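Try this one yourself first.
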């Protein structure tokens, strides 16, 4: 079964992975015209820094400075219809949200970084559609907990309740479109959100229903449970930047690959580390997705997930070769190949790579030199809220295992003052907190992906496990095994 117990976590993780791996994105079907433009501006309450980053897909448009009143206004010329992203430092890292911009829109937003999504309100021309989209997003976060509860019901009852939620959303959309003039793109986004959120919930049902094994869950599904799959568009470029669609695709391929794997094996439970399963996943993505951007992003994510989760180094080259045969994007090929190279160097028994870190006094030293007893090294980023959960879990384990050293390393902040500010604000133990002196080099040498990976080393700085998780149910068994050596 899936280790996670939250549907919302599944969605957020998919979004994080998508943002990290989407080196290229779909080209817009719309053609930019010199007469097409839009304005985007805003007021930021409690800004952490005086700038906002504006982007479209993988392209950063500009970094805009806030004025003395913490406001900005930006004109986008030669506008391409679609979703744009604005990011800014907030209470729990670099937060971001999307905004739909169409020709002649003039949208202002107001938000408080202490309650980023919840405080976000749009005004101006084009505001109503974006307020609708942000409310749909917030409602979806609340529904995740409800749907998780539904997921423990028998499949037929789960499906009925899920249908009710979906039907209610479409009724609300109809009311909105009757009272407001909306564009085809707005309808496409909202309908895509509703449908692919619905599809996603059904795709993950066999994984989050804990009554039986995944094989038995799949075998007990009623006829027609996955009939919607006939309507799936694997190349829906206009929705690629909208995370419900990408999240659905990721988990859909996990589901259908597992079903194929069960046909060819005697396995009955989901094993994300299985080589055969992941090879099937790569094959299905390659055969069903035509669009290069979508296919390559999914292929990259699948390859990295396997080599990151599996400790069997002998399988890495097999996965890598399958990936290279299917993905022709040179940047992604180089990226995955370099991760494989790094992970091979992190084999159990090897010494920690030479990586320089900075302590809370500003002194630069090596990671090896601070290890003086069995240690857990975990990584965090101010970009993701997960750093709060990671530190909380580490503190719980510290109480249970005082003979273990816990080392927390920030992987993204090159601003020492900001790093210290975050450590102080969240009351993290400064003696256990470190910063990479060269984040890019260190992330490569230690193959830090995903961000919540954890390394276990012995008192000599020799690697016991280069890729595990404090949230894994067997993590404490690993610690005890190391302590008993």
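Now uncover the answer:
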């Amino acid at each position: 079964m899936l280790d996670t117990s939250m549907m919302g976590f599944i969605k957020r993780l998919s979004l994080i992975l998508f943002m990290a791996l989407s080196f290229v994105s779909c080209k817009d079907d719309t053609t930019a015209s010199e007469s097409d433009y839009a304005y985007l501006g805003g007021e930021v309450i409690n800004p952490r820094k005086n700038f906002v980053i504006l982007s479209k897909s993988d392209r950063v448009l500009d970094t805009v400075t806030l004025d003395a009143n913490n406001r900005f206004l930006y004109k986008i010329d030669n506008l391409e219809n679609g979703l744009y992203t604005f990011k800014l430092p907030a209470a729990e890292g670099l937060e971001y949200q999307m905004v739909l911009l169409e020709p002649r829109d003039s949208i202002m937003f107001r938000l408080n970084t202490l309650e980023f999504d919840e405080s976000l309100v749009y005004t101006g021309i084009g505001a109503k559609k974006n307020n609708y989209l942000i409310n749909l997003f917030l409602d979806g976060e609340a529904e995740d907990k409800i749907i998780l509860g539904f997921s423990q019901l028998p499949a037929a009852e789960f499906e009925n309740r899920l249908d009710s939620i979906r039907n209610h959303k479409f009724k609300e959309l109809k009311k909105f479109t009757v009272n407001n003039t909306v564009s085809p793109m707005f309808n496409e986004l909202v309908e895509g959100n509703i449908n692919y959120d619905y599809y996603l919930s059904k795709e993950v049902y066999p994984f989050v229903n804990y009554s039986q094994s995944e094989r038995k869950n799949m075998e007990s599904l009623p006829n027609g449970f996955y009939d919607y799959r006939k309507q799936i568009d694997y190349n829906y470029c206009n929705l690629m930047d909208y995370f419900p669609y990408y999240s659905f695709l990721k988990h859909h391929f996990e589901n259908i690959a597992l079903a194929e794997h069960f046909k060819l094996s005697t396995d009955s439970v989901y094993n994300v580390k299985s080589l055969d399963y992941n090879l099937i996943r790569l094959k299905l993505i390659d055969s069903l997705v035509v669009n290069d951007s979508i296919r390559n992003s999914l292929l990259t994510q699948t390859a990295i997930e396997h080599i990151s989760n599996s400790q069997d180094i002998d399988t890495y080259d097999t996965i890598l070769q399958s990936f290279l045969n299917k993905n022709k994007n040179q940047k992604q090929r180089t990226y995955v190949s370099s991760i494989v190279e790094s992970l091979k160097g992190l084999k159990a028994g090897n010494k920690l790579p030479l990586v320089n870190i900075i302590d809370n006094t500003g002194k630069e030293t090596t990671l090896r030199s601070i290890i003086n007893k069995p240690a857990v090294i975990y990584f965090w980023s101010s970009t993701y809220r997960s750093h709060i959960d990671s530190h909380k879990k580490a503190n719980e384990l510290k109480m249970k295992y005082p003979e273990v050293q816990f080392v927390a390393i920030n992987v993204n902040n090159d601003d020492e003052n900001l790093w210290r500010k975050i450590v102080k604000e969240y009351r993290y133990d400064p003696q256990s907190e470190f910063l990479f002196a060269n984040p890019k080099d260190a992330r490569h040498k230690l193959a830090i992906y995903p961000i919540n990976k954890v390394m276990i080393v012995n008192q000599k700085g020799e690697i016991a496990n280069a890729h595990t998780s404090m949230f894994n149910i067997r993590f404490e068994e690993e610690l005890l095994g190391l302590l008993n050596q």
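Discussion: Residues 155-179 form the longest helix (25 residues). The radius of gyration is 23 Å.
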